[in-house]
Records
---
Amino acid sequence: MQNTNNHEVILSVKNMVKDFPLGQSSSNNLMRAMNDVSFELRKGEALAIVGESGSGKSTGARILTRIYDKTAGDIYFKGEPLDSYIKKNGSLEYARQVQMIFQDPFGSLNPVHSIYHHIARPLTIHKRAGKEAIPTLVYELLEMVGLFPVKETAEKYPHELSGGQRQRVAIARALAVSPEVILADEPISMLDVSVRLGILNLMADLKDKHGISFMYITHDIATARYFAEKTAVMYVGHMVEWGPSDSVTQTPQHPYTQLLLSAVPEAGKSGRRELGAKKGEIPLWRPSSKGCPFASRCYKASEKCAESIPAPTMISEGHYVRCNHL
Ligand SMILES: Nc1ncnc2c1ncn2[C@@H]1O[C@H](COP(=O)(O)OP(=O)(O)OP(=O)(O)O)[C@@H](O)[C@H]1O
Ligand SMILES: [Mg+2]
């Protein structure tokens, strides 16, 4: 894989922590959804965040779009602490540059509005163009996301499109404001298998040709490897392994990454070759919890793992892992 480390860092997160209250009883009754999470999004690069349900993937994206506040940690946008960037440039400007695409394209489109309206609206809100220029821009955006014929598509309503076409509209709407970053939260998981690759290839085009940075949230480490230059594997709010996608997927070191990869069906192999994992419970992580969150399911776990999760070890260029048993 090419070394893309000299690409400019657009968005970075350092030692992010997010706690949620458990129920309404007491402010001390907390669960820790993200623990000491750090990563960078570079210009024109995709970072895949991979992990099973509840690992804290969407929480990270929601903090970056300021839907949630962080409990601790730092966020930098274009080299500046996010708060000071927003103070100078305003939250609308940050929202313009950091767009989000959701899993359910139907839920994120308004059934009473035409496709034209969905794409014209952000152009107006963010004052991207004068009234006369808007139709041309809407058609250009529809062309960019591969929705033809553009004029007929613009007149349609969300229910008249397929799931894949609706996701393309959601992408066009995000593109309308010329974002630097797109946070894509499981953008293909609700789509028919036959159209998933088309959406991934469209996003790859936007990344490679237009320099947009992507955070690609997924359960599926196979699509992470296909689409993203970098992959970070999360388990119960912790980043357990991260680095160049090729290295993480070809030489996985953490038992959890190995488990995820063993569940990927491979061409030419009959059935799945899934690795065993203990049937331990997925722990409820609390601010006071310690050790490695995967210990209860890990076949390598020892006493040490119940006590601590080690600092990251770099096992090859940019490839890090947090495991006591390397
Ligand atoms: N608003 C909230 N209030 C309380 N707990 C929350 C809230 N949002 C998320 N959580 C909890 O934080 C943890 C991480 O949730 P998150 O949605 O980030 O997981 P995820 O990795 O995106 O999972 P999935 O793959 O199912 O989307 C979960 O245990 C979830 O219940
Ligand atoms: Mg999620």
Note: The pocket of magnesium ion (ligand 2) is lined by residues 57-58, 185 (CB under 6 Å).
---
Amino acid sequence: MNDLLKKRRSIRKFKQQPVAPDLIDKLARAALMSPSSRKINPWEFIIVTDPELISKLSACKEHGSAFLKGAPLGIVVIADETKSDVWVEDTSIASVIIQLTAEDLGLGSCWIQVRKRMKDSSTTSEDYVRSVLGLPGNYKVASVIAIGYPAETRPPCDENELLYEKLHSNKFGNCMKL
Ligand SMILES: Cc1cc2nc3c(=O)[nH]c(=O)nc-3n(C[C@H](O)[C@H](O)[C@H](O)COP(=O)(O)O)c2cc1C
């Protein structure tokens, strides 16, 4: 697990190759294993492999989503907001679980933020994704996780560069020695 955490970096360039169906199944199952508050499981996942839809989704923001166009797979993480008041936390956890599972399967991934983002000056990214995918109004859109076989390498996390000053021992302000 520690190695997985070190190795995982955001990957935004992908090989053209479609993701193998058995790996897509594993990603989908992993998403459904995500913990959620009171086990309400307000999240749902749209597994998008249709290149036309992926291309449309890549235009969901002015910045930070165009690279999705080059990905063979996008998992759109949504939630029924009427089911849980902490759907944001639940969908965030599920998004990370998808990313770590992707890494474990030899795939690269990157989170694309949709919630609270704008497509342009008049349309929210969420409304845009809603119209592209036909989502009912009670569904909120948290993220799109772009996934594919990596076509770029990123250096793993360097433990010497971790932000150790953000760790406190017992009380705030007490430096934690590791
Ligand atoms: C909540 C969240 C939202 C993010 N949104 C985007 C995004 O919209 N576009 C993007 O290219 N990267 C996005 N990222 C990826 C971050 O930029 C990336 O995780 C951060 O720079 C650290 O790099 P690393 O993942 O390679 O360690 C997001 C990450 C998180 C956790």
Note: Residues 9-10, 12, 64, 110-113, 154 surround flavin mononucleotide (CB under 6 Å).
